[in-house]
Amino acid sequence: MNGDLKILTGSSNPALAEAICSHLGCELTPTLCETFSDGECRIEIGANVRGDDVFVVLSTSAPVNDNLMQLCLMLDALKRASVGRVTAVVPYYGYARQDRKVAPRAPISAKVVADFLTTAGMDRLVTVDLHAGQIQGFFDAPVDNLYAAPVMLDRLRSIQSEKGEIVLVSPDAGGVERARAYAKRLNAGLAIIDKRRDKPNQAQAMHVIGDVKDKIAIVVDDMIDTAGTMCAAADVLMNNGAKEVMACTTHPVLSGPAIDRLCNSAFTKVFVTDTIELGDKLNHCDKLEVLSIAGLLAKAIHNIHTESSVSVLFV
What we know:
Elements: E1 5-9, H1 14-24, E2 31-35, E3 41-45, E4 53-57, H2 64-80, E5 85-90, H3 109-120, E6 124-128, E7 143-146, H4 149-163, E8 166-170, H5 176-186, E9 189-199, E10 202-209, E11 216-224, H6 228-239, E12 244-252, H7 258-263, E13 267-273, E14 288-291, H8 294-305
Parallel strand pairs: 1-4, 4-5, 5-6, 6-7, 8-9, 8-11, 11-12, 12-13, 13-14
Antiparallel strand pairs: 2-3, 9-10
Helix pairs in contact: 1-8, 2-3
Subunit structure: Homohexamer.
Domain Ribose-phosphate pyrophosphokinase N-terminal: 5-121
GO molecular function: ATP binding; kinase activity; magnesium ion binding; ribose phosphate diphosphokinase activity
């Protein structure tokens, strides 16, 4: 065991860090996170961490670059304070969609972020529902890619018992494995949206592969960004006879017109987790329902700290 357990956080998602501490029965270690007038970050750890087992909870969500820099500076500060071990708990891993070269002179941004964190002093990474699983290979350090499925499945089972037959829907071919895993655990049907993407952040849903007629269709994805894909999928499902359409996604990025689109969409409910703090966005869309992953992350942190198995949390 690596010293005492300490939980730190930055400015991206303090509520989640507090909830994790509540599950673990500990207090958040004070950390100063300020911004100088020229925009530079100022970080200072407010307690002795020498030899301790420290977990930094910080999603690299918007503003992505600010939060990424904040995380790197916190890791460096801990390393220079002679920390025993430091684990970066990054529920939402920014730049995860840039995991390969899509043009001759383009970077692999997800790999660059991995290098940043490793160089800054990270010993281990805990994250949730990586957009691309192969990003784990960008790190030489251990990576625990947890799944939000246990949290989501509890809620979906209640929907199943309340409303009757459901069908899990993948909004594109790439998400079929995720939707199939949900469908298997819920003993429900599976459908796929055939989609053609013309430009980044723009998608056109074409037609449904599978039977959704007179069923509760639940679209499953790892994130909602501008909500274009999701809302187009909802329309297609309704046009194909679905009785009701809901959505289930881990990371509520919700950039640009996403909130307006969801409010005006055919969805009756959109289930998300708290990997990204929504703030005022919750007040502008009553279709959003947040399910906390604090308990899941707390179990992972406890198991890592006590050198127990983390794989028992994977479903």
